[in-house]
């Protein structure tokens, strides 16, 4: 039975021909580059009536991103503990256009895991 090796590369591998050449040198059958989003363009806005906390809060989501970079499904995987912050994060990222994942140079549908850290609001 032939063994297939899969190489998972982060999105910044797109910028590095050296990384792709190295994957080919390892004789990998598949090169997979994870989808991602531009974080600054998709950053949520803190709701005015959200709890004012003195410590940072992190919310985590999983987004199913299609070949065109559009979110098809979103799942909350870890709440920040504040429903308003969770909703603001979901709304911002669900409307964001992602760079879709690619496999062997072809875009494909995939899950993208993201976390967003809310810092305390400045007084």
UniProtKB/TrEMBL annotation:
Topology versus the membrane: Single-pass membrane protein
Entries under InterPro entries matching the protein: TonB/TolA_C, TonB_C
Classification via Pfam families: TonB_C
Subcellular location: Membrane
Gene3D superfamilies (UniProt xref): 3.30.1150.10
TonB C-terminal domain boundaries: 31-123
Claim: Transmembrane is one of the keywords in the record: yes
Signal peptide: 1-21
Entry coiled-coil feature ranges: none
Keywords: Membrane, Signal, Transmembrane, Transmembrane helix
Domain of life: Bacteria
Primary residence: membrane
NCBIfam families given in the database record: tonB_Cterm
Protein name: TonB family protein
Organism name: Duganella qianjiadongensis
């Amino acid at each position: 039975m032939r063994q297939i090796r899969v190489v998972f590369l982060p999105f910044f591998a797109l910028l590095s021909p050296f990384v792709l050449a190295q994957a080919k040198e390892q004789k990998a059958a598949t090169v997979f580059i994870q989808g991602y989003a531009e974080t600054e363009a998709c950053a949520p806005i803190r709701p005015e009536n959200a709890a004012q906390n003195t410590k940072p809060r992190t919310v985590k989501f999983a987004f199913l991103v299609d070949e065109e970079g559009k979110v098809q499904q979103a799942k909350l995987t870890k709440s920040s503990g504040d429903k308003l912050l969770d909703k603001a994060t979901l709304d911002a990222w669900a409307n964001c256009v992602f760079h879709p994942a690619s496999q062997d140079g072809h875009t494909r549908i995939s899950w993208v895991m993201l976390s967003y850290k809310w810092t305390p609001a400045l007084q």
